Amino acid sequence: MLAAAFDASGHEADQPVMVVAGFISSAADWASFSKEWYKRLSKDDLPYFHMREILKWNVPESQRRALFGDLMTIIKDHAYRKFGMAIVTRLTSRISHADKLRWYLGAYSLAGRACANDVYKWVARERIPSPVACFFEEGDLGAGLLRDGMIQDGFPPPVFLPGKKPRKTQDGTIVRHFLPLQAADFIAAEYFMYVSNEIRKSGKRSNVRWGFLEFEKMAGEVYAIDNRGSESWLKLLEMSKRIDELIRQHKRGNH
Predict the structure, then answer these.
(1) 3-state SS, residue 178
(2) Average pLDDT value for residue range 22-44
(3) CA 10 – CA 194 distance, rounded (Å)
(4) Count of C-beta atoms within a 10 Å radius of residue 124
(5) Which of 53, 78, 184, 195 has minimal CB crowding within 10 Å?
(6) H helices within 59-142, ranges in order?
(7) Structural domains in the chain?
(8) What is the model's pLDDT at position 113?
(9) According to the 3-state scheme, what is the secondary structure of 2-57?
(10) Mapping DSSP to helix (H, G, I), strand (E, B) and coil, where does residue 222 land?
């Protein structure tokens, strides 16, 4: 079985971009990854990896860089390919409320569905017979839209799991966290920082983070829908709506 792990960085309400990104690997390789990942975090007495917290970690910068380097090696040794999508969040502000409900649209939903679409296209292109599951870290706003949108797109529903800590349900059941989601947090954060900086800098030259450059070397793509791309996407949405209405009219005419 193949498992794709995704996490999001950015929020529609207060950020210019939403990034959903992650990796695909086999269940066996993810199990090996999890052992090595946990062992490396334990070396620094870290209970989990969360990029936002690591960037504020009160340690010498050399220690933080050593952690990043070791975790990057673990990811590259176990993940087969990266996938990701960055969407300018103001794209969704131009979509009517009715269309958002009908098509399950939101920045998180759009980016997550694009990632899933790329995963299943890659699996089909490579003629991989193994079943595929897409895991997303639970707790992100828009999870319901993502779930309903993936079903509408004809994909299996996503699986939402804790990424940082195990969670106990009301009946006392322990829901285990899925460590590959922490690797997804790493790449989503790096691309979020890069794309956000590109949007804000207005042509000014700036340094590019080491982590982003290392992820760029991996197989796979993290795409971005910028302002020009959003125009094309909105036109495609309008075309889809017109086609859908024609189908409805045809069905009504046959009854």
Answers:
(1) coil
(2) 98
(3) 12
(4) 9
(5) 53
(6) 61-78, 90-93, 97-103, 107-125
(7) 2-226 (3.30.420)
(8) 93
(9) EEEEEEEECCCCCCCEEEEEEEEEEHHHHHHHHHHHHHHHHHCCCCCCCHHHHCCC
(10) strand
Instruction: Check residue 35 and give its pLDDT.
Output: 98
Q: Do residues 148 and 110 touch, judged by C-beta distance below 8 A?
A: no
pLDDT value of position 224: 85
In this prediction, residue 229 carries a pLDDT of: 44
Place of tokens 């086609």: 243
- In the numeric block, the tokens 């504020």 are attached to 56
Helix 27-43 with 61-78: angle, nearest 10 deg: 170
Please tell me the number of Cα atoms within 13 Å of 163 on its side-chain side. 23
Mean pLDDT for the chain overall:
87
Round to whole Å and give the CA distance between 47 and 52. 14
DSSP secondary-structure letter at 165? S
111: number of Cβ within 10 Å: 29
Provide the sign of the torsion angle of the four alpha carbons 122, 236, 110, 144, taken in this order: negative
Token couple for 43: 């070396």
Contact present, 114 and 91 (Cβ < 8 Å): no
Q: Is the pLDDT of residue 21 over 60?
A: yes
Q: What is the pTM of this model?
A: 0.87
Cβ–Cβ under 8 Å, residues 192 and 170: no
Residue 1 has pLDDT above 90, yes or no: no
